[in-house]
Amino acid sequence: MGKWVIETNNLTFGYSKRTAVFDKINLRVETAAIYGFMGPNGAGKTTLIRLLLGLLPHHTGEIMLFGKPLKANRLEILSKTGCLVEQPSLYENLTGRDNLNITCMIRGLQKDSIDRVLQMTGLTDAASKRVDAYSLGMKQRLGLAIALLPQPELLILDEPVNGLDPLGIVEIRELLIHLNREYGTTIFLSSHLLSELEKLVTHIGILRKGELIFQGSAAELDAIQQHQSTVMIDTDNNHGCLQLLKQDYPAISLVADRLHIPYGDKETIGDLCQKMVLAGFRLYEVKTDHHDLENIFMKLTSN
Ligand SMILES: Nc1ncnc2c1ncn2[C@@H]1O[C@H](COP(=O)(O)OP(=O)(O)OP(=O)(O)O)[C@@H](O)[C@H]1O
Q1: Sorted alphabetically, which Gene3D superfamilies does this protein's record hold (predicted)?
Q2: For residue 43, which atom of ligand 1 is closest to its CA?
Q3: Residue 220: which H helix or E strand, with range?
Q4: Burial of 212 (0-12, 13-18, 19+ CB in 10 A)
Q5: Residues 115-145: pLDDT tens digits?
């Protein structure tokens, strides 16, 4: 297998011939990544996940998983892939363990994995409880336990934290990080809320109106974030500093009695501060107002 666990080439799909949900998507998900696939409601995330799992019939372009075309290798590929698409379908009147037993029977899997996945998802103590007594977070974890039964190399999860309370979100996040670090599982997950995934993902793809408008590492998105930041400075005489600096730094301004300058690079900030100090001004505060990722996401996905 090459570098990519998931690769699409010019993937184009529409539910009807006239309207494409997306057009020529080139997704690249590398081995052992946690790839957050983001986009506003209706952007096409679930549709793309269904295509990756071979659940929608017609598309143009290519879908490759584990370096092989999905069409010709679907069974082999899916045997190495665990998935959770929206809510897990569970037998609510049975226990958690029975749900896992049934899945093993249906999919022809060894039952000796059951204790392992219960333990991984923190459900060992609740295994003999009926699922209708589970919280939403526990049901989601059971859905994940089912997805983990075949010891997948790749997990594809559609909105795995949707509807969970903050504690449930933390639980799922920790579990996914553990799976990734401990077993090297590649995780591809979608969400319409960047803030939920920010602390989890190593790579990000942002879908807007059928177009992949950003794809790269979380660090690359951070760099974009930094370039949209403002440096705010407070001194004993902000007006005096403005006069001193505006010749060399025309972008500097005075806003609410603070000096504001668009973030350029570290050296520029160092030079600015040095000039002020050498001119006899006292610096009280230098801080960078980072736009958080949520803001950048909103900017990227709005018109
Ligand atoms: N079965 C279907 N038949 C026709 N159109 C559909 C079908 N499923 C989804 N769509 C349309 O395709 C587009 C993409 O929907 P999709 O559910 O993939 O988006 P999404 O990004 O997952 O949204 P959400 O975050 O709300 O789940 C939407 O315009 C939706 O109305």
Answers
A1: P-loop containing nucleotide triphosphate hydrolases
A2: 21
A3: helix 218-227
A4: buried
A5: 999 998 889 999 999 999 998 888 989 999 9
Q: How far apart (Å, rounded) are the C-alpha atoms in residues 208 and 189?
A: 16
Which candidate, 255, 252, 251, 244, places its Cα nearest to that of 281?
244
Cα–Cα distance for residue pair 108/103, rounded to 1 Å: 8
39 CB near ligand 1 (under 6 Å): yes
**pLDDT confidence bin for 295, thresholds 50/70/90:** low
pLDDT tens sequence across 57-91: 878 999 999 999 999 999 999 989 999 987 778 99
Q: Are 38 and 207 in contact (CB under 8 A)?
A: yes
Ligand 1 contact, 41 CB (< 6 A):
yes
Residue 16 reports pLDDT greater than 70: yes
CA of 46 to the centre of ligand 1 (A): 7
Ligand 1 neighbourhood includes 47 CB (under 6 angstroms): yes
| 262 vs 222: which has the higher pLDDT | 262
Report the C-alpha gap between 220 and 238 in whole angstroms: 34
Q: Mean pLDDT lowest for which of 44-48, 96-100, 127-131, 208-212?
A: 208-212
Say if ligand 1 is within 6 A of residue 51 CB.
Answer: no
Calpha distance 303→299 (Å, rounded): 8
In the chain, what are the domains?
Answer: 4-216 (3.40.50.300), 228-301 (3.30.70)
Ligand 1 in contact with 21 (CB < 6 A)? yes
Here the tokens at position 218 are 């979380």
